[in-house]
Amino acid sequence: MDDYPKHWMGKIRKDCCLRYSSLIFLIIINILSITALIIGFLFRGQCSIEQNISIYLVVAGFIFTIYYTFLLVLMLMMMLTDKEDVDSLPKRKRCALAISISIICLFMTAWLIVGCIWIFPIKLTVQSIDSSFSTYCQSTLYDYAFFYCCFLIIICFIHYLYFFCMMRRM
After folding, report:
1. Among candidates 78, 80, 153, which has minimal Cα distance to 111?
2. SS3 sequence of 4-63
3. DSSP 121
4. Cβ distance 37 to 57 under 8 Å?
5. C-alpha of 18 from chain center
6. Residue 125 has pLDDT above 90, yes or no
7. Which of 24, 29, 93, 170 is paired with 124 by a 20 to 30 Å CA distance?
8. For residue 56, which of 42, 70, 39, 40 has the smallest C-alpha distance?
9. Contact between residue 68 and residue 30 where contact means Cβ atoms under 8 Å apart
């Protein structure tokens, strides 16, 4: 026991805490993305002010669910394998994985921008009382789309900030 540095237990606790908090975070994002998919599907055609909002939620919910489920599985695999096994993956496979993740992230960012263009400008004119008006949008659909867009902006910011911090370390 005296052979180990005094800080080794703290390092193990910090690593476990980081892993499990990341795991919980990915599960929460998946739940919110599946909810977006369901709400977009259930309320399609119920937003006359901007018909594309339900399409946005369906596509964003689907893409983000696939992406974050993939990351969740990848993280679980890395938690269950030795570091040496991960390091022994061929460089080509690691590059292909990194390129695939980057392409998906670029698409998700572009789709988020499109969603913001559809959702944010109508915030002051949208109403959910009278469906006969051209400014109508079902309240659950619009409110969730607005929340989901704001949430994704924050997540993307954190995601890119983490990515750039990791790149600076290399």
Report:
1. 153
2. CCCCHHHHHHHHHHHHHHHHHHHHHHHHHHHHHHHHHHHCCCCECCCCHHHHHHHHHHHH
3. G
4. yes
5. 18
6. yes
7. 29
8. 40
9. yes
